[in-house]
Amino acid sequence: MASTTARLDLDGNTINPMTICMIGAGGFIGSHLCEKLMQETPHTVLAVDVYNDKIKHLLEPDSLPWAGRIQFHRLNIKNDSRLEGLIKCSDLTINLAAICTPADYNTRPLDTIYSNFIDALPVLKYCSENNKRLIHFSTCEVYGKTIGSYLPKDSPLRQDPAYYILKEDVSPCIFGSVEKQRWSYACAKQLIERLIYAEGAENGLEFTIVRPFNWIGPRMDFIPGIDGPSEGVPRVLACFSNNLLRREPLKLVDGGESQRTFVYIKDAIEAVLLMIENPGRASGHIFNVGNPNNEVTVRQLAEMMTKVYSKVSGEDSIETPTIDVSSKEFYGEGYDDSDKRIPDMTIINKQLGWNPKTSLWDLLESTLTYQHKTYAEAIKQAIAKPLAN
Ligand SMILES: NC(=O)c1ccc[n+]([C@@H]2O[C@H](COP(=O)([O-])OP(=O)(O)OC[C@H]3O[C@@H](n4cnc5c(N)ncnc54)[C@H](O)[C@@H]3O)[C@@H](O)[C@H]2O)c1
Ligand SMILES: O=C(O)[C@H]1O[C@H](OP(=O)(O)OP(=O)(O)OC[C@H]2O[C@@H](n3ccc(=O)[nH]c3=O)[C@H](O)[C@@H]2O)[C@H](O)[C@@H](O)[C@@H]1O
């Protein structure tokens, strides 16, 4: 419940209720952010998306305590003149809208580039022209590969953090060749970051850029054949959840050697709320938001998810829990990968005093409990159906 006592920012000033135009509010991050804003703050959200399934529980029934503070606007920002009006009547715009599943980057590069660059242009224009604050969601993928990945395999420098820690104001953006269309997303995100930064520098736009590092939790993506297309390939959490639910081996792309740091969505949302409510500390900054303590290879992630799922479902794991698959087979031509992603936390610590709290085991336990409760029965029925026919 939103508290009735005044909310204070990090400098002890009263936070006034604001109206937030949240574009992409119906997605994974948007649904958690809407939930947080409704349950814990007095702010109003104009929720813009083409879908609202993930925020339905916040929109209905009319008797919800926050009724009237969240409005859903079903619109596609590619071609809807209502967008400018919504931005104009808000204090802050948060842009989350994007195509952001790697399976699309090399197979639908045009849609990916349009979604992440061209479609974000009007949002930026309307914020800049109307002097509205913008929080734009970029990605840790803008760093691409680490400098260390180009060193010889046995180089001792690979162990030196200077060669792999990703730092907002220092690290370069290293992408593969244009033929490696995996980088279409990262490159589009990088260009929109540069444009936002330039609008800030030349025209005084008040902006914050967020670079999420593998945020995971309930409601991420979809389970193929249940609430998404059977042939669709979501991000790794949903791919592995789907395999576990169906008692199939988890597929390790190119040996599962890539490394990632995973952060719990609920920790990450705390960071976004600090940005929303502390504009003086957040504006003009680019923030890494991740958990440097939760690093694993994809193979280790698969092993941990298998153990956690056994615990939460009460089922033994299958005899062959993982299989190797080539990236060409799994994602098609033009796939490439980030080798390692550890966020430097200096800037977000200094500006907002934020730190992630949840260990990888704990976040997987709560997320897989949700996946099991939400999908296990539906999967059982889907598997039983063809046999019954
Ligand atoms: N989840 C992560 O860990 C992560 C990591 C890095 C970056 N990001 C970035 O954060 C943002 C949100 O990610 P997410 O994980 O919530 O993704 P998501 O796909 O769950 O949410 C994106 C939402 O935007 C909506 N959308 C897309 N195009 C639209 C359009 N033209 N008009 C209206 N709505 C549109 C989609 O319907 C979807 O609901 C994206 O910009 C993504 O690139 C996320
Ligand atoms: O989440 C992020 O911070 C960013 O990175 C993600 O990219 P990536 O981490 O590569 O995407 P995942 O689908 O989560 O894959 C992680 C790793 O698991 C591997 N993988 C994925 C799925 C699978 O079934 N098996 C498997 O081995 C992938 O090859 C990759 O190495 C996406 O690009 C974005 O959502 C986002 O911008």
From TrEMBL:
It catalyses: UDP-alpha-D-glucuronate + H(+) = UDP-alpha-D-apiose + CO2; UDP-alpha-D-glucuronate + H(+) = UDP-alpha-D-xylose + CO2. It is an enzyme of class 4 (lyase). Signal peptide: none annotated. This is UDP-glucuronate decarboxylase. The lineage of its organism: Eukaryota, Viridiplantae, Streptophyta, Embryophyta, Tracheophyta. The keyword Signal does not apply. Belongs to the NAD(P)-dependent epimerase/dehydratase family. It is found in: Cytoplasm. It comes from Lactuca sativa. Pfam families: Epimerase (PF01370).
